[in-house]
Design brief:
The complex is a heterodimer.
Chain A lengths: L7 H10 L1 H23 L4 H17 L1 H14 L3 E5 L2 H14 L4 E4 L3 H6 L1 H7 L3 E4 L2 H9 L15 H11 L10 H18 L2 E4 L3 E3 L4 E6 L3 H7 L3 E7 L3 E2 L2 H16 L6 E5 L13 E7 L3 H6 L13 H4 L4 H4 L10 H12 L1 H4 L11 H5 L6 H14 L5 H14 L2 H19 L4 E2 L6 H4 L4 E2 L6 H16 L1
Parallel strand pairs in A: 1-10, 2-3, 2-4, 4-7, 5-8, 7-10
Antiparallel strand pairs in A: 5-6, 6-9, 11-12
Chain B lengths: L2 H20 L9 H10 L12 H10 L4 E4 L6 H9 L7 E5 L3 H4 L9 E5 L8 E5 L2 E3 L4 E5 L6 H5 L3 E7 L3 E2 L2 H11 L6 E5 L4 E2 L7 E2 L6 E7 L5
Parallel strand pairs in B: 1-12, 2-3, 2-4, 4-7, 5-8, 7-12
Antiparallel strand pairs in B: 5-6, 6-9, 10-11
Classes of the chains: A alpha/beta, B alpha/beta.
The structure holds iron/sulfur cluster.
Iron/sulfur cluster (SF4) binds next to α14 of chain A.
Chain lengths: 476, 229
């Protein structure tokens, strides 16, 4: 997909003014945080499970060459095909070729962030193939012609009424009215059943690639992935190279930390492992099974200082806990991966030039790292990307100038303290009795949307010094 | 260069990139022997506690999310029970789709004449399906089903109401135990291994959990005592 990350500032301001979006984000903030916490409190040794999951992934990444080759030969052994795609364009071309060889007119898809990354739908559609997303969230944004705004809840930014309006425009509802969530879901079920049963090719993503068995693992609540992998003549799974795990047991170990972190459930309704075409005597299943493995800069990440990012299992909990993401939503980030993980991945995959602003969309609060089940050091990596941004001269002039001035100031503590004392006193006078300030000359970015609480009147340093003096005299 | 060569080259470029990225990693095991040694000495995964009563743990965990469970005293009681559970109260026939599972075949179906059993792959219009679990996992309250003649994958996802028969002895504590059983059951993996822990559901509209989106709207587990062998 084309990146619009350079528009982050404009898009995020717009998002802050979007009332619908803000109402949804408020709900998200309250709901998912609480659910995750409740789920994890029920697992007494969650920390131990996390450590193990991380060790599994570290071992796999350190031996990725071996496990990728093992995965490939296991797939071939069970009668499937493996294709290697270095770039997004390669993946799209290979998928299109498979579809065309199969004479496919209709394709169903279950949710895949990799296909979003490569923009696969557009390529298939341009070749005259009908593509239907079957994950309800993906289906909704397909109707709305929008990119996903969250990596596991792609349509999280849509209100119920907006979904009803979309269905009214795109479905033949006749006299029927949609009101409840149930009526919306029933309507989607009816329409998508047809698509499932008439598709020639089914395309799924993969949460895991199991090296030992040549299976792909799918984690869903809807069951759309299972129908996509079972009913059409051809099943294509698209996945990036770091999704490989050595054994099915390792997939289970990752699952133990993935699902509670992602949705607050102990496990999703469906966890499925598929591989190979239907076996002799099987009454159903595809006749062909293909896996397309995508690199798209991941070997570079593996070689460099951002390898830890490849441990990410796309649970989205860093998004749900990020004060920036939960204020501006996913579309502000301008590409497929938003939030803290997206602010690391987007510059690494689409280039610093377009995406250098994203690592700045961070308050350094550290919550993402705290909640990440795979111990991905997101704040460190964001800081490192900001350093690279500066080294490459990409930091906007105003910021660069301001930061340089601030750095100089910090190198002169006397001037800094004096300045802080004056400013604090001045701000106190401005706040007067109200205790807050409605507007200040250089801080309009803040005061436009909220008031600035005025300081008590003395700096921390002053208070500290005073306290120490008192303490010293008290000891005498 | 022909297409085949290009493909081979792309594969080599990716794998070559991976190799040079990991070669110097302290955790990289270059030889097959080293890897084998690693696997021999690798400690088993930590697991969450499950308690001693596996039937109890399994039942309570799967019921946490919208599934229902019943325990019957005997296998013989199953057909009658299903007739009551699936019946509408009026004396209509009940169509029940099942795979070619000998374990289901041997149930006393003559005790429930209103059930019309159709042994085949499920179609999109089928209402009620019955499968027997390969095993179940107490840890997460999950049923394990394997693709094949005895239970085509369509039967687990296309029917509206899915009934699953589960023998007590087939409940294992952990996912690892389920994988062990699957490995022991056949010379190769079935095409599909499904861990099912609830009916089909979605949270995609309004962040509200709604049951019954693409797959079964209800999941009902019937636990029976194990066959005296
Ligand atoms: S970085 Fe961590 S928290 Fe964020 S999606 Fe990946 S695994 Fe989850």
């Amino acid at each position: 997909m084309e990146s619009k990350s350079s528009e982050f500032l404009a898009r995020s301001s717009e998002a802050m003014r979007d009332e619908h979006l803000q109402s949804v984000l408020n709900k998200l903030r309250a709901g998912l945080e609480y659910k995750r916490k409740a789920a994890i409190l029920k697992i007494p040794n969650f920390e131990e499970l996390k450590e193990h999951a991380r060790a599994v992934k570290d071992h796999t990444l350190a031996n990725l060459d071996h496990y990728l080759e093992e995965f490939e030969s296991s797939v071939i052994e069970s009668g499937g095909h493996v294709h290697w795609a270095r770039t997004s364009a390669d993946l799209n071309r290979i998928a299109l070729e498979i579809c065309q060889k199969a004479g496919a007119l209709r394709v169903t898809k279950s949710k895949s962030m990799i296909a979003e990354e490569t923009g696969l739908n557009t390529v298939l559609e341009e070749a005259g193939i009908e593509v239907t997303e079957t994950d309800l969230g993906e289906y909704i944004i397909q109707l709305a012609e929008e990119p996903p705004s969250h990596i596991i809840g792609p349509a999280i930014h849509k209100t119920k009424q907006q979904v009803i309006d979309l269905f009214k425009n795109h479905h033949d509802l006749g006299e029927r009215e949609l009101e409840s969530v149930k009526s919306i879901v029933d309507e989607a079920r009816k329409v998508l059943r047809d698509k499932f049963c008439n598709a020639d090719v089914g395309i799924t993503g993969a949460n895991f690639l199991v090296a030992e068995t040549g299976r792909i693992g799918l984690v869903t609540n809807e069951g759309n992935g299972d129908l996509t992998a079972t009913l059409p003549r051809v099943h294509i799974a698209v996945a990036s190279i770091e999704k490989v795990v050595p054994t099915p047991e390792d997939a289970s170990a990752l699952l133990r930390v993935l699902v509670p972190s992602a949705t607050g459930q102990p496990i999703t309704s469906y966890v499925s492992f598929f591989g190979g075409p239907r076996k002799q005597g099987d009454p159903d299943g595809p006749e062909e099974f293909h896996v397309i493995l995508l690199d798209n800069n991941r070997t570079d990440m593996l070689a460099g200082e951002f390898r830890d990012m490849l441990r990410c299992i796309r649970c989205a909990t860093c998004l749900n806990h990020c004060p920036v993401y939960t204020s501006v939503g996913g579309h502000a980030y301008g590409w497929v991966y938003p939030g803290p993980m997206g602010s690391v991945l987007t510059p690494l995959m689409t280039g610093m030039g377009k995406a250098h602003l994203l690592p700045n969309a961070c308050s350094s609060c550290g919550r993402c790292e705290e909640v990440c089940p795979m111990g991905v050091p997101l704040p460190d990596m964001l800081r490192q990307l900001r350093t690279i941004e500066r080294e490459q001269g990409l930091t906007p002039a105003g910021w660069r100038w301001g930061l340089t001035a601030f750095m100089k100031l910090l190198q002169h503590p006397r001037i800094y303290h004096l300045g802080a004392r004056w400013t604090t006193a001045a701000l106190k006078r401005m706040g007067k009795k109200r205790g807050s300030i409605a507007s200040i000359p250089v801080g309009s970015g803040w005061t436009k949307v909220r008031e600035l609480p005025s300081p008590e009147g003395r700096t921390f340093q002053d208070l500290w010094r005073q306290k120490n003096r008192k303490g010293a005299s008290g000891n005498e | 260069m022909n297409e085949q060569d290009v493909r081979k080259q792309d594969r080599e470029k990716i794998l070559g990139g991976v190799r040079s990225a990991v070669r110097k990693d302290p955790g990289h095991l270059a030889s097959v022997e080293d890897l084998a040694k690693y696997w021999k000495s690798r400690p088993s995964a930590p697991r969450p506690p499950v308690g001693d009563d596996l039937v109890e743990t399994f039942s309570s965990r799967i019921q946490e999310f919208a599934s229902t469970v019943v325990r019957l005293d005997s296998l013989e009681a199953v057909p009658r029970y299903i007739a009551e559970y699936a019946g509408t109260g009026e004396d209509e026939n009940i169509t029940l789709v099942t795979g070619e599972d000998p374990r289901l075949e041997n149930l006393p179906w003559d005790t429930a004449p209103e059930i019309r059993r159709e042994v085949r792959k499920a179609e999109r219009t089928d209402n009620i399906g019955l499968s027997q679990a390969f095993c179940a996992v107490a840890e997460s309250g999950s049923i394990v089903l394997l693709s094949g003649k005895a239970d085509p994958t369509s039967n687990d996802f296309l029917v509206d109401r899915h009934i699953i028969l589960l023998a007590e002895d087939d409940i294992v504590p952990y996912h690892e135990d389920a994988w062990k059983r699957i490995r022991e059951a056949g010379s190769s993996m079935p095409r599909a291994v499904n861990f099912i822990s609830g009916p089909s559901s979605t949270g995609d509209v309004d962040l509200t959990l709604q049951v019954g989106v693409h797959g079964p709207r209800t999941l009902h587990v019937v636990i029976v005592p194990s066959n005296p062998s």
